[in-house]
Amino acid sequence: QVQLVESGGGLVQPGGSLRLSCAFSGGVFAIYTMGWYRQTPGKQRELAATIASDGTINYGDSVKGRFTISRDSAKNTVYLQMNSPKPEDTGLYYCGAFVPSYFRRNPNYWGQGTQVTVSS
Fold this sequence. Notes:
four-stranded antiparallel beta sheet, mainly beta, 11 strands
């Protein structure tokens, strides 16, 4: 059974930086598309970024140009580097994983979430 464990959340000042990590276990990391999703106050869960097994990256419009997703196959870990965060980036950040197919375009495995608060 795939397990995802997020870490790295916390309090960050606007304009600062924070790196989230998601450790993957229980499956073959190399075949999974990995993603970061977030739920901000008053909004539904939305895409932050995904990275496919071939390295293809997709960003949500709200984080483009500020956040960077990457994956380390040696450590079975995916990262989200958050640069220049804004108060509106405050929320619960979830790691998700799935093997893409015609029938699956979204995660079927989720981590427990890590809280990010952007505030001075």
